Amino acid sequence: KVLAFYKNILDPASSEDVTIDTHIARVLFDKMSLESNEISYVFSKRGNIEAQVAVQKEAKKRRVKPHVLQASLWVCVRELAQARADKDQLPLYIK
Q1: What is the arithmetic mean of pLDDT over 16-45?
Q2: Which helix (H) or strand (E) holds 11?
Q3: Is 30 helix (H, G, I), strand (E, B) or coil?
Q4: Can you say how many angstroms the Cα of residue 79 is from the centroid of all Cα atoms in its chain?
Q5: CA neighbours within 13 Å on the CB side: how many for 66?
Q6: What is the pTM of this model?
Q7: Which residues of 69-87 are buried (b: 16+ CB within 10 A; e: fewer)?
Q8: Is 34 within 8 Å of 22 (Cβ atoms)?
């Protein structure tokens, strides 16, 4: 994760790396709440490689750099997570 993040900052014009994190795992598993085994898999060597390849293939289809697609997905998931957290907290404010 850290090396990909570093490469994306250092050389964004040519980097093909994807920063694999929990938000990308949520996209790949298509759900906001992940099981511990799903998180473990994405952070394993094999899971990380598969996640990288999946994002790289989709980025290629969309003609964008993988880290650009990853960043866009990250923002979308962050917004969904925040909206969910705000909704879940609403009853606390009503009382």
Answers
A1: 92
A2: none
A3: coil
A4: 12
A5: 20
A6: 0.77
A7: bbbebbeebeeeeeeeeee
A8: yes
Whole-angstrom distance, CA of residue 83 vs CA of residue 35: 21
Percentage of the chain with pLDDT > 70? 86
DSSP H stretches of helix in the chain: 2-10, 22-29, 36-42, 45-62, 66-94
Amino acid at 95: K
Closest listed residue to residue 52, CA positions, set 74, 13, 20: 20
How many C-beta atoms lie closer than 10 Å to residue 20's C-beta? 23
Q: Which residues contact 19 (CB under 8 A, 6 or more apart)?
A: 1, 4, 5, 8, 67, 70
Structure tokens at 94: 């009503």
